[in-house]
Amino acid sequence: MVDHIAVPVRKSLITGYDQAVVAGIEAGAYGVTISGAGSTLVAICPREAAADVADAIAGSLTSNGNPAKALSPSVVETGIEVLTAGV
Question: Is 8 helix (H, G, I), strand (E, B) or coil?
């Protein structure tokens, strides 16, 4: 999850980024990085650590002057599903 091209430039736009990455890893994440163009951070972690990791990242960002909200979306386990209108 280390991006040597975009993250070094974009992280300067996210106050508290480096501290948030450390907080996420200390809380159990395998890695933390910028999602897409930002300013969302995404972490990969065991399911049972997801809430703690999200809270740690959001808490770190907030304590560094960047108000953040922790989100832990669920993962779809059924695979792709085709939806057809009118069937």
Answer: helix
